[in-house]
Amino acid sequence: MAPGERLARAALAGVVEPGDERLGRLIAAWGPEPVWVALRKGAPPPEGVSARHWSGLCLRAEKADPERDLERIGALGGRFLCPGDREWPGQLADLGAAAPIGLWVRGPCSLRFVGLRAVALVGARACTDYGAHVAAELATGLAERGWTVVSGAAFGIDGAAHRGALAVSGVTVAVLACGVDVSYPLAHRELLDRIAGSGLVVAELAPGDHPTRGRFIQRNRVIAALSRGTVVVEAARRSGALATARHTTGLGRHLMAVPGPVTSGLSAGAHRLIRSEATLVSSAAEIIELVGEIGELADPGPEPLVPRDLLAPRAARVLEALPAEGSLGLTEIARGACAGEEEARARLVELCALGFVERVGEHWRLPPGSTRHARVVLAGKAHGGT
């Protein structure tokens, strides 16, 4: 990219509010440099931009200092990315006119590469212990499988997701609603430094800029666009995480949600998403099954086992031949199991040793109160192949 265009984009990133589609369309039509020159000179408002909006941008342009901002990001060990750079994530183009003008980045990773396999985990700031536990567990599972965890570095679910990825030395990306040199919330300064040390801290706003309510909402569209899918872990009916969910569906990405207690107001928003458009997920494997490559299926896990499941088929048939009440002789048991008497006798002796049956004279029966479950489970495992 030509130095003049990079400088113009750095200037516009400090002047234009994130997600301003009117200016996005103007930049696409004119190019960054002509737009910056027009703002700096206080030119008349172009077609499609109101005079009021344009005059506000011109006032901001008077105070803009892109050279200073580029020096500040360089002093932090960071960089300013522009569309067309090798590190620029191509999926941000899906935002159209609302795509970022540029991104200020701290951290050693390539944003483009870590964004190839990325999942967003978002949710309530005032989350429950359940929500924080689930967010950390999902982030850990994703990171262990080589996926990047994207979130907003806020209190609650965001912080738990970042920490979960960091706990297993995974890659996590924090997308901020302020400058990358601003620790917001202040209590997350150490967390943001850890993320910048091994992952990435990303912002549309120039260094030093402060967060506002509107910037948080616009930040969410970048979280959604960077990721293959978004998981809402815990969210009330009115939650900023639901804005990320709307951006996710608008971009055609996978939207997922984690269920919570039906009595919890902090799960009401997530439950509404599950009823309408989100896929219910409960593990990292289920998330990857949706957002991963074809063939990356979640392991359904083992079915619950009872001791009789460990029996070999012939022994199980003999056990089934015994009635729930009363006892039977050897001949009747062999007939019920469709086996010879010697075969039936051998299996009954094994079943007796394992605690499945007991002998009463010449008859055999289930132990009183038994439901055909072994009382000696370890022995059943050891003899499961008989």
UniProtKB/TrEMBL annotation:
SUPFAM superfamilies: MCP/YpsA-like (SSF102405). It holds the Pfam family DNA_processg_A. GO terms for biological process: DNA-mediated transformation. Residues 80-290 form the Smf/DprA SLOG domain. InterPro entries: DprA (IPR003488), DrpA_SLOG (IPR057666), WH-like_DNA-bd_sf (IPR036388). Coiled coil: none annotated. Belongs to the DprA/Smf family. This is DNA-protecting protein DprA. It comes from Streptomyces sedi. The lineage of its organism: Bacteria, Bacillati, Actinomycetota, Actinomycetes, Kitasatosporales. The gene is dprA.
